[in-house]
Amino acid sequence: MDKEQIYAVVKKYILENLEDLQDSDIDPQKSMKDYGANSLDIIEVVSCSMRELKIKIPRSELADIKTIDELADKFLANMSAEANQ
Amino acid sequence: MKKIGIEKINIYGCSLCMQQADLARARGKDPDQVVCDYLINTRSLNPPYEDNVTMGANAAQAILTDEDKQDIGMLIVGTEGSVDFGKPISTNIHKALGLPPNVRNYETKHACYSGVAGLDTAVNWLASDLNRGKKALVIATDFSRKHFNKDHEFVLGGVAAAILVSENPKIVEYELEKKGFWTTSIYDTFRPTAKHESGNNEVSLYSYMDALEGAYNHYQEVVEQPVDFDNYFKYNIYHMPFPGMAFQAHRLLCNITRSRKKTEIKESFEQKVLPSLRYAARVGSTYGASNFVGLCGLLKSAKDLQAGDRIGFFSYGSGAIGEFYSALVCPEAKAIIENLKIDEALNQRKEVSFAEYEKIENIRELSIEQADITPDFSLLGNWYAQHYAGKHYLVLKEVKDFYRTYEWS
């Protein structure tokens, strides 16, 4: 799976969890907070994305991530590490 | 296997409170939004002559008869705000309650898990038969520290819970073999000194969710049968650092079973979780007493409560641990909770203004780690004379050369 596909999964859950947001509104260089997400919404997007992508990262390691793009990178790194094991 | 569970329960939500909306306005926030985000309407506050010892003793004294006291063989007090690093406050409470000398007592610490740590030890002691027919008194008592102008100032408060655990449960009976747990080492929220309460709220929320998922998965392994989340538990009680967190916790477990839309989760939440938020919404952060505060709220508020209903509990302690366990409702539970009149006790609290809140929190903080303290009993329009005098509440009389003296009002 490449980064585009991971980003598509994350974006799907952002759209599902945040109201009044269109696909075209989302800029990966921004934080979900820029779109009105609170901490609990972000946790939900992270949890749903990890479940679909079958990724297991302690959520607590994700607390410092600033943008949607960084989140996708972190997921990609984890999937690559798993694949190499 | 013998039945073990809670025979008696009570919570003590302090004698003062402040409206969350008043705090929000004073801090320049939208009061409606703050109340809606955290689901806290009022937070508890203590006058300077109350502390974690008096709160715990006051929760227990209201429900224990002399006969109950003679039957107690173990006293465990959970807290993350002890008044001494060596002498456990269980000894102060043991003395105040007049318990017999042949009682094992100690304090447990694991942030907000301290109460359930005590509960688990008590339940196992009774299950082992080494209790020789005796009962265990478990108390959880916590109060927040001063955090003026911080984001988490909106999730502070305090409450104590007392439960009598016995082989004659009348509130809930624990399913002794059904518990799952999960541990990691993390600095999410912690208390490195007697005044500080440090940490990162987001790390703590994330760690809570890790612990919930880990403990629930372990619970499912232990139960050794597929757990149909929607039908297996009639109600769910989650640790509430603030009541609003319970929604997110329920959302996670709903989605583990089957991915679903927010509206469907909201419906499930309102039916299975919301009743347990009743008292947390009035005291603020529930710390180590959280699961017991949730249980009292659920038993009081649930409309269709039946004997044998299974409740799923989740307890979380920063640092961190999560435990998921379950219990069954006893036939007498509803009537006992009605007789406790917890709502009435909370209604009797004095509502203080924002200015009074800042004043008494400053006074309280100044008293921490002081060798000599003489609490001012005339504060707040002589609230002591109005609310305490002659009503048999435990209060801190004085601290002299670090020796603390308590007396009943």
Write the layout of secondary structure elements.
The complex is a heterodimer of chains A (85) and B (409).
Chain A: H1 3-17, H2 39-53, H3 68-84
Helix pairs in contact in A: 1-2, 1-3
Chain B: E1 5-12, E2 16-19, H1 20-26, H2 31-38, E3 42-45, H3 52-61, H4 66-71, E4 72-78, H5 89-97, E5 104-108, H6 114-127, E6 135-143, E7 158-166, E8 172-183, E9 189-190, E10 198-199, H7 201-223, H8 229-232, E11 235-238, H9 245-257, H10 262-272, H11 280-283, H12 290-301, E12 310-317, E13 321-329, H13 333-340, H14 342-347, E14 350-351, H15 354-367, H16 379-388, E15 394-400, E16 403-408
Parallel strand pairs in B: 2-14, 4-5, 4-6, 11-12
Antiparallel strand pairs in B: 1-7, 1-8, 2-3, 6-7, 8-13, 9-10, 12-13, 15-16
Helix pairs in contact in B: 1-2, 3-5, 7-9, 9-10
Outline:
With 85 residues, chain A is mainly α.
How helical, in percent, are the residues of chain B? 25-40%
Which two chains touch over the largest interface? A-B, 16 and 25 residues
Count of folded domains of chain A: 1
CATH fold-type name of chain A: Non-ribosomal Peptide Synthetase Peptidyl Carrier Protein, Chain A
Amino- and carboxy-terminal Cα gap of chain B: 43 Å
Secondary-structure element order of chain A, as H and E?
A: HHH
Structural commentary:
The complex is a heterodimer of chains A (85) and B (409). By secondary structure, chain A is mainly alpha-helical. Chain A has one domain: ACP-like (Non-ribosomal Peptide Synthetase Peptidyl Carrier Protein, Chain A), CATH 1.10.1200.10. Chain A is globular and about 40 Å long. Chain A starts with a helix and ends with a helix. Chain A is built from three helices and no strands. In chain A, helix 1 crosses helix 2 (39-53) and helix 1 (3-17) crosses helix 3 (68-84). In chain B, helix 3 (52-61) packs parallel to helix 5 (89-97). By secondary structure, chain B is an alpha/beta fold. Chain B has two domains: 5-171 and 342-408, Peroxisomal Thiolase, Chain A, domain 1 (3-Layer(aba) Sandwich), CATH 3.40.47; 173-337, Peroxisomal Thiolase, Chain A, domain 1 (3-Layer(aba) Sandwich). Chain B contains 16 helices and 16 strands.
